[in-house]
Every structure is written in structure tokens, then in C-alpha cells.
Amino acid sequence: QKEVEQDPGPLSVPEGAIVSLNCTYSNSAFQYFMWYRQYSRKGPELLMYTYSSGNKEDGRFTAQVDKSSKYISLFIRDSQPSDSATYLCAMSGGNNRLAFGKGNQVVVIP
Amino acid sequence: NAGVTQTPKFQVLKTGQSMTLQCAQDMNHNSMYWYRQDPGMGLRLIYYSASEGTTDKGEVPNGYNVSRLNKREFSLRLESAAPSQTSVYFCASSARTASNYGYTFGSGTRLTVV
After folding, report:
1. What contacts B31, CB < 8 A, 6 or more positions away?
2. Which of A43, A62, A71, A85 is the most exposed place for a label (fewest CB within 10 A)?
3. Is A44 exposed, middle or buried (0-12, 13-18, 19+ CB in 10 A)?
4. Candidates A43, A95, A96; nearest CB to B90
């Protein structure tokens, strides 16, 4: 079992819809959780960061962590064509090493 | 702009040729990393350097070597390129407390081995 599981299946949504992405993990030591956004032919960039369980909101983006279920989520409200990208989850137990999911391609259709 | 700079951006090699991918960061980060990204495989760690003077193998080190030249620069060398090394290569860096601030990635090097 990989440490981090993320369904890489492409996700197409109409503009204005809510996008819901998630990852599961197996390592109970993970405490730091992140989401990266990667546009085509670019490097990943840090989008959201959350420590331990709970929610964090930044504009149209909300990150949720449920440590009891080993499950994290990213929600994008009022999705825009500019949100079309691949989203990768990442997490760490504090040892300076990140474990990444495989990434989820999102296409927002105008 | 502050960040991670990778060169070259594109490269085509013939099987058996060698090359070095260059990476430099200007954020005074301690740790640096080399990843490859392939369709359906996600990011896979090749080598990393936790601090100047140290390097360690990651998940897929075979066929590669690295050099941490100084705190700013971390290079990746392919001694004898193989078609299986066709990929997009990303360099990243992080402060000592990477868990708090995450990694900063470069824009990548697209390598094709024919």
C-alpha cells in the first residue's frame, strides 16, 4: 500500500461548479498536509497548507483534514477555467520529506 | 524573482550520451531535491540533499548521480542516458522546516532520450 493514494482520474466540471478532490493516507505520523497546483508544462506550486485536523479557507479554496479517517480534501468553489490544472496532495510527519499523491487533473469547461 | 532555476528547459539526447541538469535556488534553503514526473506515476524522488555536503538516494536513483556544489546549487547527471529516462525532471528546495513551508519547485526540464 502506498503511503498516499490519490485517484488520478481526470475530472471535468462546468464553470461555476464545486470541485471536490481527496487523498487518503496510511502513515499515522503525518501531521502537515498540503495541496499543490500544477499548470501544464509548469512546476507544482504550493496552494494550501494545513496542520493537523481541521479546515482552512483561502478565497474560493477550502482544505479539510480528517486525521481519524486519514483523509484530506480540497474544495474549489465557483470554479473558473483558470482553475484547470493538476492538483497534487502532499503530506509530512515533520522529517523534512514530503510524500506526494499522483495528482488529479481538473478541467473546468467554460 | 526569487525561486528555483533549472537549465536547460528542453533537451534531446541519444542513447548512451551523458548530460548534467543544473539547478540553483536563491532562497537560502538548506534542502534540495530532484524528482522525475511521468504520466500515471506522479512525482518520484531521485536524490535529495538535506544540507550542503550531504546527498542521499531517493526512490529511483539508478542511472543518476548528483552533486551538491554549494548551498545554492544541486546538479543531476545522467552518465549514459537510456530511453527509460525520458521524463520531466523537477528540482525543488525547502527550508529546514519543510513541513511548515513545503517545497518550492523549478519549472522543469523536459528530457527525451532517443
Report:
1. A96, B48, B49, B50, B51, B93, B94, B95, B96, B98
2. A71
3. buried
4. A43
